[in-house]
Amino acid sequence: MAAKEIYLDNNATTRPLPQVCDAMMRVLGEDFGNASSTHSSGERARKYLTEARDSVAALIGGDSSNLIFTGSGTEANNLVLMSCLVRKNKPSHIVISSVEHSSILKTCDHLLEKGDDVLLLG
């Protein structure tokens, strides 16, 4: 008899709720489209994207126009950290820990090379 697997890697990927899977399958299988396109499939995709953005904004008490959806945690981490390079009036000061995701550590190494102040704790 095979032992039942106990999944403990939720930090990397978490099993989505059944309702999420159902909604994703509907969109991926029936209502897929590029939300930037002007045809009907694109308009449906844009509607779903707008609804998702509004739902997240309401959940966190924010403004939906300030939300950016990314494809991964690495992309999100890089977006935030690389924005430090955009405002080069003065160097950024960033404090991180030694147990950060590798995308944080690698990007902060790059920022350090560019003259930003990065303090690594631990």
Automatic annotation (TrEMBL):
Q: Which cofactor does it need?
A: pyridoxal 5'-phosphate
Question: Start and end of every Aminotransferase class V domain?
Answer: 6-113
Q: Which InterPro entries match?
A: Aminotrans_V_dom, PyrdxlP-dep_Trfase, PyrdxlP-dep_Trfase_major
Q: Which SUPFAM superfamilies match?
A: PLP-dependent transferases
Q: PANTHER family in the record, alphabetically?
A: CYSTEINE DESULFURASE, CYSTEINE DESULFURYLASE FAMILY MEMBER
Family to which this protein belongs: Belongs to the class-V pyridoxal-phosphate-dependent aminotransferase family. NifS/IscS subfamily.
Q: Mind telling me what this protein is named? A: Aminotransferase class V domain-containing protein
Q: Which organism is it from?
A: marine metagenome
